[in-house]
Design goal:
Elements: H1 7-21, H2 30-43, H3 49-58, H4 61-71, H5 82-99, E1 103-108, H6 114-125, E2 132-138, H7 141-149, E3 151-153, H8 157-166, E4 177-180, E5 183-186, E6 195-198, E7 210-215, H9 224-237, E8 238-246, E9 261-265, E10 270-273
Parallel strand pairs: 1-2, 1-7, 2-6, 7-8
Antiparallel strand pairs: 3-5, 4-5, 8-10, 9-10
């Protein structure tokens, strides 16, 4: 049994990662980070925390990318929180498209891409997919490739289909994928114009302006200081009167720039930027 990991040990690990690979986990919520490190130690059968530390100190970039994939949270599904997708379909997207001929959307922390495909399907059913520029970003290159590939486990499609129905999809979700080698292969035409890019919310700045930013269930793994920093990047990345959407357990109410947003839908965590 591996001994309980101390906070000081976690700090030594985050310092090493920042020095060697310029990834800053220092402002992650330590309880969550600790659980994931504990899982890695057990999964890869490290004899001790120091053995993991030594491995990170000597590993190559490929191994480190695998480590990143284990650390970052990649649990998601299509049309997650269906009531949110109803709000998006019936109010947010029509409002944006009423005022703009084209719009831009950023999925920040897109994980394996289920949210991106959900968005593309929604836009297609609103007959406006060709009017929207989508950027999907994540820190994890391996999971980003999975998003590009759009190949998902067939066993997950039952839940995805139920979510789609509750999200008021107008067709049937199986119209958007084909079964191949035990996988659901999503229709690539849905994302042919999507830009998938590596982006680290922890350390990087704004790279463009958007009408809608979605960052759902990512910031719960950050401490308050880092959440503030990331929300400032989102504020800078939004046009005035554009929308920011966060996860069901996340909020802008407490943050330093809360007065620059208004609440559009508190239940679905939809905010509008009202001040530069």
């Amino acid at each position: 049994m591996i001994q309980e990991i101390e906070i000081a040990q976690l700090r030594s690990l985050t310092d090493l990662i920042k020095t060697r690979f310029n990834y800053d986990f220092g402002n992650y919520a330590m309880s969550s980070f600790k659980r994931r490190i504990q899982r890695i130690i057990e999964l890869y059968k490290f004899s001790s925390f120091d053995a993991l530390l030594e491995k990170i100190n000597t590993c190559d970039k490929k191994y480190f990318q695998d480590f990143i994939s284990e650390i970052t949270v990649n649990v998601t599904e299509m049309f997650r929180d269906p009531s949110f997708w109803v709000e998006l379909r019936e109010n947010i997207l029509p409002n944006l498209l009423m005022d703009n001929q084209t719009i831009s959307i950023w999925h920040a922390g897109c994980s394996s891409g289920e949210e991106v495909y959900s968005m593309a399907i929604t836009l297609k059913e609103l007959d406006c997919l060709d009017k929207v520029r989508i950027v999907a970003s994540d820190v994890d290159m391996a999971i980003l490739q999975k998003a590009r590939d759009g190949a998902y486990s067939l066993k997950n499609m039952e839940l995805n289909a139920k979510n789609y129905e509750r999200a008021k999809g107008t067709l049937s979700i199986d119209k958007y994928y084909k079964e191949q080698n035990g996988k659901a292969m999503m229709d690539k035409s849905l994302v042919k114009d999507v830009i998938f890019r590596e982006h680290n919310l922890v350390s990087e700045v704004s790279f463009g302006k958007f009408d809608l930013i979605l960052c759902r269930n990512v910031m719960i793994y950050f401490n308050q200081a880092l959440q503030n920093q990331v929300l400032k990047v989102f504020h800078e990345s939004l046009f005035k009167n554009s929308y920011l959407i966060v996860g069901s357990k996340e909020s802008l109410i407490w943050c330093e720039i809360a007065n620059k947003f208004t609440i559009v839908n508190n239940e679905e965590k939809v905010y509008k930027k009202t001040k530069d």
